[in-house]
């Protein structure tokens, strides 16, 4: 679609939006307000606000969002995460870098159940940092590994950001989930490689624990089985495609509840609390999606997206375009939450993908991975903030080690951006992409 | 005047508290319905027509009400790094500007959702439910905007009277809203708890 | 930039400056499918005919929302026009249900005869009341078929089949009449629902069976032609009434031309598609028992009549006069 007409007040909406979010107006209300200006100036019906809101809540795929949030919250409430780490410790603790590898592996497993990064940093993270410091690790390094490895959460399926992207780009959530699998594993491996390099180079204190025997390994694995069951069901469901992602989310939720009952950790009080927390998190996320849909209407029909697309594609060189795009995303990621960025920028990403002949799935994984970097980039570094807060560590002292983990992450991002099979191979052989 | 404000605060707190619990369980209910549907499909190979639409019904209602509670708790995602460096007076002015924006947006939602309701009432019911989609598309948004309007007007007035930043200031760390750290939540519940009125006296 | 030139040209010839009116025109289909191509054709024709007075901007692929959303947009003039399947307007105009009812018509001509007669007037009146103006409903898609992961020789094979329906009650009734279990799945999720076994099969127009990739997971087609779907162009009534009679004529003409182009290619396209499906798609066209399907659908007319699916009394029998 190359429609020529651009709204003359375009910059006005855009600038008002930027000013509002800088002045701490909630991003959802800033989006609604600049859309309101657009609606008033163009005499558009206010029905749009109600309609887009209801439509975004009604999207059947978005049902997965509250359910995955519930799973993340509930998993931490049941407290099985220590068993995941215990197992990873027995299997990987003896390698150079020791428990740092166990930390990363535990996050990869936890990622198979949780849809967001911060549930990892604040829940599993406390156990990881405690175990590492108890074993004599540098606390700042332990916090850094924990914060960085939490970023694997939104890449390995399930992922709330993938659900949102699929909603925005009208692609298959299932294909998004499948596409995230290999990049997520690559990210974990790249981080492990970085741990080996960094601990040597910077002389970080990483005592290696004694190599466990096979008996201990099996025992720890058996012990972790209940906690592994959830990710196993999800990954199996997602890879075979027998469940839709929405179904996966409720199956996982049911698994958690049943497990807590079997393990005698269930209580009505805990359930109520988890549900109330789910409501708050989901309410916040969905209000962003709702106003994001209104905002998208504004930027699509006003011609803003076309103007920006023409500018970006006018750069000519595909590699340059993708580099600039990644630069913009990374810059935004330093300040704005990942979901908000996706919502704001989705139409632009889709147009650029179409212009470059890239799949919406690949560009979606690229964008999600990119904004995930924002979890550990200053000044906000929310994953580090949460980890430091939850473990009593120092944000500033751990920041130095944390930003170093951008290196393995950016390398993974480069592969996702420029090596199509890393994302598209799996969805293709599993048949969810033609 | 202050007394009246405290009374309103207490009533609204109880209301939101109640809303959170029943809406939370409504989320549980629709997850259970969906799980039941999955079982019907896999085990009995016979999904029940109408459940999916019912789940949509709950989803729209719960998320609309969830939006209200997020606003009440000031948990909306914000960008704070610029305002952190601003003088306190400027921050306080902006809190109120933000609140006025919420009032305005809530007001424009009301006629819009009312009109949508009227439009949808003319449509025939779909998806195996007996009632029009107006009752679960337009209506929850209408109810949401009315609740939000009440809450935002209350906050505007209460702030003028009490000058209490907690009413309008965003929860300090935006990430907490996504994470729900135990510590912060219990702290906040304690601070803003419906039964706990004596904080006003201090 | 290309659309700006005619505007400037118009400015120089006309002394008073007139700003171009933007007409937002939407469609749900993905680029490359027949419907969005016809929409683009229509918009191009209109832009040429209006020479900058109106600028028709085409938004494909649900950019303005899904079909239901776009219809609401039309009602409040958020967008001015759209192309959709006529069936999907049934929520606003009950008599449209008969267009999707299984085996209500025996041919495309039969149905169009009805739509052109005054028996169909309640349809257009109801659409008018809801804020829509019908411009053209003659974009004739290929007829509707059943397809499944296993062969459907007769309705007996459809018992217990998880059958995808859109969120429209008449499709539920068709499914139940055939003995199938209706499951609502949105159009965009249809291929994945088949792949994942959420549904075993369903129905669609022949065109979509290939273009939406439905054949990849469900390879048995029962070419029953149970209904003759058409795409239509509708406009917001507010916008339509703001046009002069001459301007309305221009829009009508452009729509007619676009429909002609559509109809010329669509039949041949199915011939090509079918050859592809058999040769490369490993699709089987089943030898089916037509009478058995007709028998299964026979009680439908009375049941629908009774349940208030039609506004016009005795509609089924009335339309049979147009054979
Ligand atoms: Na995950
Ligand atoms: Na970790």
UniProtKB/TrEMBL annotation, chain A:
It is found in: Cell inner membrane. GO terms for molecular function: transmembrane transporter activity. It is a multi-pass membrane protein. The keyword Transport does not apply. GO terms for cellular component: plasma membrane. The chain crosses the membrane at residues 12-41, 62-80, 100-119, 140-168, 174-199, 220-243, 249-267, 279-299, 319-348, 360-381, 401-419. Keywords: Cell inner membrane, Cell membrane, Membrane, Transmembrane, Transmembrane helix. Its main location: membrane. Residues 14-419 form the TRAP C4-dicarboxylate transport system permease DctM subunit domain. NCBIfam families: dctM. This is TRAP transporter, DctM subunit.
Automatic annotation (TrEMBL), chain B:
It is a multi-pass membrane protein. Residues 31-155 form the Tripartite ATP-independent periplasmic transporters DctQ component domain. Its main location: membrane. The keyword Lyase does not apply. It is found in: Cell inner membrane. One of its GO terms (cellular component) is plasma membrane. GO terms for molecular function: transmembrane transporter activity. The keyword DNA-binding does not apply. It comes from the Bacteria. The chain crosses the membrane at residues 21-43, 55-72, 93-112, 134-154. GO terms for biological process: C4-dicarboxylate transport. Keywords: Cell inner membrane, Cell membrane, Membrane, Transmembrane, Transmembrane helix, Transport. Belongs to the TRAP transporter small permease family. This is TRAP-type C4-dicarboxylate transport system, small permease component. It comes from Dethiosulfatibacter aminovorans DSM 17477.
């Amino acid at each position: 679609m190359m429609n020529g007409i651009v709204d003359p007040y375009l910059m006005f909406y855009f600038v008002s939006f930027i000013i509002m979010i800088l002045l701490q107006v909630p991003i959802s209300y800033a989006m609604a307000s600049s859309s309101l200006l657009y609606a008033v100036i163009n005499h558009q019906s206010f029905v749009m606000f109600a309609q887009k809101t209801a439509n975004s809540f009604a999207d059947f795929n978005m049902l997965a969002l509250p359910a995955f949030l519930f799973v993340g919250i509930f998993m931490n409430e049941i407290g099985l995460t220590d068993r995941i780490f215990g197992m990873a410790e027995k299997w990987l603790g003896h390698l150079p870098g020791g428990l740092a590898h166990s930390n990363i592996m535990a996050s990869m497993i936890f990622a198979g159940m949780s849809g967001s990064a911060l549930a990892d940093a604040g829940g599993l993270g406390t156990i990881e940092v405690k175990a590492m410091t108890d074993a004599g690790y540098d606390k700042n390094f332990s916090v850094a590994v924990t914060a960085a490895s939490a970023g694997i959460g939104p890449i390995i399926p399930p992922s709330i950001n993938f659900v949102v992207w699929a909603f925005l780009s009208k692609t298959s959530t299932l294909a998004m989930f499948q596409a995230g699998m290999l990049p997520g594993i690559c990210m974990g491996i790249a981080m492990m490689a970085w741990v080996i390099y960094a601990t040597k180079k910077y002389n970080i204190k990483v005592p290696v624990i004694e190599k466990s025997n096979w008996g201990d390994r099996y025992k720890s694995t058996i012990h972790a089985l209940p906690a592994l069951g959830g990710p196993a069901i999800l990954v199996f469901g997602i890879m075979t495609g027998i469940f839709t992602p929405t179904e996966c989310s409720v199956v996982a939720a049911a698994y958690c509840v049943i497990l807590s009952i079997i393990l005698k950790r269930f209580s009505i009080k805990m359930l109520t609390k988890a549900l109330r927390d789910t409501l708050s998190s989901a309410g916040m996320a969905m209000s962003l999606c709702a106003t994001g849909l209104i905002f998208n209407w504004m930027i699509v029909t006003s011609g803003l997206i076309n103007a920006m697309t023409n500018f970006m594609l006018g750069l000519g060189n595909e590699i340059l375009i993708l580099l600039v795009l990644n630069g913009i995303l990374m810059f935004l990621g330093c300040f704005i939450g990942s979901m908000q960025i996706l919502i704001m920028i989705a139409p632009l990403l889709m147009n650029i993908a179409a212009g470059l002949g890239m799949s919406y799935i690949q560009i979606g994984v690229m964008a999600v991975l990119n904004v995930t970097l924002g979890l550990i980039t200053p000044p906000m570094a929310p994953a580090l903030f949460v980890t430091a807060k939850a473990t009593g560590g120092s944000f500033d002292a751990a920041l130095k080690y944390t930003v170093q983990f951008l290196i393995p992450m950016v390398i993974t991002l480069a592969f996702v951006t420029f090596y199509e099979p890393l994302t598209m191979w799996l969805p293709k052989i599993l048949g969810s992409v033609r | 005047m202050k007394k009246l404000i405290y009374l309103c605060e207490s009533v609204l707190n109880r209301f939101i508290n109640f809303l959170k619990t029943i809406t939370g369980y409504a989320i549980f209910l629709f997850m259970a319905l969906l799980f039941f549907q999955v079982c019907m499909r896999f085990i009995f190979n016979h999904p029940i027509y109408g459940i999916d639409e019912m789940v949509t019904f709950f989803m729209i209602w719960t998320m609309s009400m969830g939006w209200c509670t997020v606003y009440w708790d000031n948990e909306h995602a914000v960008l704070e790094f610029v305002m952190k460096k601003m003088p306190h007076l400027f921050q306080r002015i902006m809190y109120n500007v933000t609140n006025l924006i919420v009032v305005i947006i809530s007001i424009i939602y009301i006629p819009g959702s009312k009109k949508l309701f009227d439009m949808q009432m003319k449509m025939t019911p779909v998806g195996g439910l007996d009632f029009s989609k107006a009752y679960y598309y337009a209506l929850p948004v209408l109810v949401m905007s009315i609740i939000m309007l009440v809450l935002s007007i209350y906050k505007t007035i209460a702030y003028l009277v009490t000058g209490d930043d907690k009413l309008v200031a965003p929860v300090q760390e935006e990430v907490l809203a996504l994470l729900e750290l135990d510590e912060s939540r219990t702290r906040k519940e304690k601070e803003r708890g419906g039964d706990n009125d004596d904080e006003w006296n201090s | 930039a290309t659309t700006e030139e005619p505007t400037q040209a118009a400015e120089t010839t006309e002394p008073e400056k007139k700003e171009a009116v933007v007409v937002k025109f939407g469609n749900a289909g993905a680029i490359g499918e027949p419907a969005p191509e016809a929409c683009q054709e229509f918009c191009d024709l209109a832009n040429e005919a209006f020479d900058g007075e109106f600028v028709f901007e085409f938004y494909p692929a649900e950019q303005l929302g899904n079909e239901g959303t776009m219809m609401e947009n039309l009602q409040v003039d958020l967008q001015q026009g759209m192309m959709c399947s006529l069936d999907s307007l049934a929520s606003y105009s009950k008599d449209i249900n008969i267009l999707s009812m299984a085996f209500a018509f025996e041919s495309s001509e039969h149905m169009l005869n009805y739509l052109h007669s005054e028996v169909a007037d309640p349809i257009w009146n109801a659409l008018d009341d809801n804020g829509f103006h019908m411009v053209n409903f003659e974009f004739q898609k290929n007829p509707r078929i059943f397809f499944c992961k296993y062969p459907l020789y007769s309705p007996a094979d459809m018992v217990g089949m998880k059958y995808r329906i859109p969120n429209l009650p008449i499709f539920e009734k068709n499914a139940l009449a055939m003995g199938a279990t209706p499951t609502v799945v949105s159009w965009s999720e249809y291929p994945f629902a088949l792949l994942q076994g959420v549904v075993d099969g369903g129905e669609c127009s022949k065109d979509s069976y290939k273009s939406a990739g439905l054949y990849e997971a469900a390879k048995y087609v029962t070419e029953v032609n149970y209904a003759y779907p058409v795409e239509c162009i509708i406009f917001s009534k507010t916008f339509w009434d703001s046009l002069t009679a001459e301007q309305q004529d221009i829009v009508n003409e452009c729509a007619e031309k676009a429909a002609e182009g559509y109809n010329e290619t669509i039949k041949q396209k199915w011939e090509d598609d079918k050859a592809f499906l058999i040769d490369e798609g490993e699709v089987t066209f089943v030898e089916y028992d037509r009478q058995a399907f007709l028998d299964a659908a026979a009680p439908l007319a009375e049941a629908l009549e009774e349940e208030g699916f039609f506004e016009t009394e005795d509609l089924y029998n009335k339309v049979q006069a147009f054979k």
